Each structure stands twice: as structure tokens, then as C-alpha cells.
Amino acid sequence: MLLPIATYSVQSAAQEPQPADVVQKLYHEVVTRHPLGVPSGAARKAIWPLLSKRLVRAFETRNACDRDWRRQHPNANVPPFMLKPPGFYEDGLFSGSNEMGYIDGAAVGRTVMQKDGSHLVYVNLWSYFDNGLESLRTQKKYRWQVGARVISEDGRFVVDDVLGFKGVFDYDKSVWMSKMITAGCNGPHAIADSARNP
């Protein structure tokens, strides 16, 4: 009589989810959807599940702050005022300001374990724009790097923040995205321009 062969579900370490996997998924969505400013619509639906609860709250706070600003400035779009709310409407919050807002590609690099147990995953980004001039004809790529902070939350890896190294978010120092997006806000309330500085 033959005995049934025992089968085991064994996953190798290479198949286990890694911090870089969620970063790869996030940047696939960013390259595909090109969200400028706080993600909304289909971009939000695709990106939110990849983010930590803390980072989602920061985005929601930013949305509330923007609503408060519009409430305070009901005639902002009426000439001669044409005020623009403090925001990041032309910036790619996961990639950078100005020409760095729209990315054509991303490659996940090394992962470095941090003292607090989080992981910093380096991401190499590129665009076919250089100093605002289109370079598609020559295929010249403008390259830069950001770092995605990944934590474990509810048994899975999620992106908790993005570190824009010096110059990426138009600052002369490295800046965490969560600090930048809440600049100009006191919780859900918009504050005066002079008080803004991440």
C-alpha cells in the first residue's frame, strides 16, 4: 500500500514580500498615473493601499487644509486677485518639484535597514526633461534619486514617507514629503504664508 506523500507549502526567502516590493508597486503607479499634487481619482484608488495610515492621514489633512483655504478665499480666482492656494499642484509628491514632477521611469535600488526598524529604499527616477527643455528627440534622461521609507503595518509593508534629497523638492536640504505636504497648514486649517516652512 502506498502512503500519500506529504506536501508542504514552503516559501523561499526570495518569495517573501520585501520592503522594495511595495516601493516597486508604488512607483509603477506613479509612472503610470503621473499624479501631480495630492493624488485623486484613479491615482488615489491605486496608491492609497500602498501607503501607511500616517501618510494617508497627512494627505487627508492637506485636502482639508486646501478646503479651508478656499473657504477663506472665496474670490481667489476672480480678477484682479487670482490667488493660488499653498499647494503642490504642479509637483509630483513622490518624485519632486517642477520638471521632476513628471517621471518617465523608476528603478528600485538598495534597501538600508534603519535604527528604528524601518527600511529606506532608494529609488532612481528619470525623465526625458532637462532643466525644463524637452529632450525626447535625443533621448537624454534627467536623473535623480529619492528614498522611500517603508514600515511594517498590519502585517504588510507600506510606504510611510518619501525623502526628497537636497534640491528635489526645491529646498536646499533634504525634506520628507509628509513635512512638505503639511507646510502651510495647522492641522486641517490653512495658515498665513509667512508661517510656511517645512
Secondary structure layout plus pairing:
Blueprint: H1 19-33, H2 41-47, H3 53-72, E1 105-113, E2 119-127, E3 129-130, E4 133-134, E5 142-153, E6 156-164, E7 175-176, H4 177-181, E8 185-186, E9 189-190
How does this structure look, described?
With 198 residues, the protein is an alpha+beta fold. It has one domain. 24% of the residues lie in helices and 25% in strands. It is built from 4 helices and 9 strands; from the N terminus they run H-H-H-E-E-E-E-E-E-E-H-E-E. The strands form 3 sheets. Strands 1-2-5-6-7 form a 5-stranded antiparallel β-sheet. The chain has a two-stranded antiparallel sheet with strand order 3-4. Strands 8-9 form a two-stranded antiparallel sheet. The longest helix is centred in the first third of the chain and has 20 residues, at 53-72. The radius of gyration is 20 Å and the shape is globular. The N and C termini lie far apart (73 Å).
